Amino acid sequence: xxxxxxxxxxxxxxxxxxxxxxxxxxxxxxxxxxxxxxxxxxxxxxxxxxxxxxxxxxxxxxxxxxxxxxxxxxxxxxxxxxxxxxxxxxxxxxxxxxxxxxxxxxxxxxxxxxxxxxxxxxxxxxxxxxxxxxxxxxxxxxxxxxxxxxxxxxxxxxxxxxxxxxxxxxxxxxxxxxxxxxxxxxxxxxxxxxxxxxxxxxxxxxxxxxxxxxxxxxxxxxxxxxxxxxxxxxxxxxxxxxxxxxxxxxxxxxxxxxxx
Amino acid sequence: xxxxxxxxxxxxxxxxxxxxxxxxxxxxxxxxxxxxxxxxxxxxxxxxxxxxxxxxxxxxxxxxxxxxxxxxxxxxxxxxxxxxxxxxxxxxxxxxxxxxxxxxxxxxxxxxxxxxxxxxxxxxxxxxxxxxxxxxxxxxxxxxxxxxxxxxxxxxxxxxxxxxxxxxxxxxxxxxxxxxxxxxxxxxxxxxxxxxxxxxxxxxxxxxxxxxxxxxxxxxxxxxxxxxxxxxxxxxxxxxxxxxxxxxxxxxxxxxxxxx
Lengths: 260, 260
Known about the structure:
The structure is a homodimer of 260-residue chains.
Chain A: E1 3-4, H1 10-20, H2 22-28, E2 30-34, H3 36-44, E3 49-55, H4 56-61, H5 63-72, E4 75-79, H6 81-87, E5 96-101, H7 106-112, E6 117-121, H8 127-139, E7 144-148, H9 157-162, H10 166-169, E8 172-175, H11 178-184, E9 189-193, E10 200-201, E11 211-215, H12 224-229, E12 232-235, H13 247-259
Parallel strand pairs in A: 1-4, 3-4, 6-7, 6-11, 7-8, 9-11, 9-12, 10-12
Antiparallel strand pairs in A: 2-5, 3-5
Helix pairs in contact in A: 1-2, 3-5, 8-13
């Protein structure tokens, strides 16, 4: 059984690039998913697995899942722990990592656009926030996610992992600006989430499909032009002293109110 | 104006220890708070600032806040960026860091115990989760936090920063076990948050003060003995596919439902 030992191998180097660079992911049409659970999620979601890296330890420990991933992967590559550490994005790697073709979600999206409840994200920068929001969106059965192209890359390894595989299953699309999306879809009622005690409280809003809630950047919120393009401004009423909530918490509470 | 350049200085070394070691914090009764906003929050909350480290750049950039912190600090120490990087816990340090005496919150806690809405955390391990939960708890005016002693250290620098200063303002107490706390406070109605579709939905529960919701470890949830000690089991109904929410999101949604 061949085990790859060289960190200078071209396959290792190109995988490291996919880990680090959004541009490399865009240009190659590939991204990485790391972890036993997330790799298995990719397979269950019929993702196109191009390469499957595993350490010998991980293979032995998770033999059944290893076999299933290996069966669908174009290529399975056993590597030493040192090589795995090179391609891994985590501090305590589990020893499974897949290179996957980026997903085509557009057609999926179009069929639900007249009846769904959506979340639109503008310039959300932190990959941990984005991953957590996707995870919440899936937990509460949001129909799909719209992202402006200045959001953090959805194929960032931290997003894929933090989403617990929701990236594979949630319909999403990336647009130039949220304003463009809203103008192109006037049938969808749009709500701008703002920190403004004069805006309508989320507890008083009827979220009737098709509708979309638009959420802005962690520090700066939404662009004023985006707020102006929305049907209505809404806010999370806060009783306490903190100026605002963590961005992914705020988004998750809004999702909760949209769906429940 | 003296600027400390040596990383080997005893003051620098003891501060690095406070950053890294919960034991060092416990034994010295000191912890660190980093960042312009968080250090200023400490001062506004009348925390006892023992040392205030600043770079010259940060002093010039935030002169007014520098002066206010410096006025209450026992000792103000200007350091080079290299020394600051040593004591700092962040990748892009803002150049302000305070060493602070741990807070006495017990008396504060006792006075509200008969009328408040509380959150109890059992074995919550991730400092980012704990910081985010404290931030949400303050935003929605939770009365206080109870933590089992096997939770991540509330004085961990990541918790202090992630809480956006809520650590300084929120009443909290640390107990041996949550079960002990519940037995000692039978007047407080207790709700065990579980992932169990048979438990009562949080949307159907009346959270009447005094009450406490108990939240468990990120991966394993609550101890069965803790669940058994609670008045009732409650759950967040999930319509979608994800198995569970991020721990800090789940806690925040429960807080939201407790308070609104």
